[in-house]
Amino acid sequence: MDALEDYVWPRATSELILLPVTGLECVGDRLLAGEGPDVLVYSLDFGGHLRMIKRVQNLLGHYLIHGFRVRPEPNGDLDLEAMVAVFGSKGLRVVKISWGQGHFWELWRSGLWNMSDWIWDARWLEGNIALALGHNSVVLYDPVVGCILQEVPCTDRCTLSSACLIGDAWKELTIVAGAVSNQLLVWYPATAFTLYLSARPTPFCCVLTPRMCTRL
Question: Which coarse location class applies to the principal site listed for this UniProt protein (predicted)?
Answer without folding.
Answer: cytoplasm
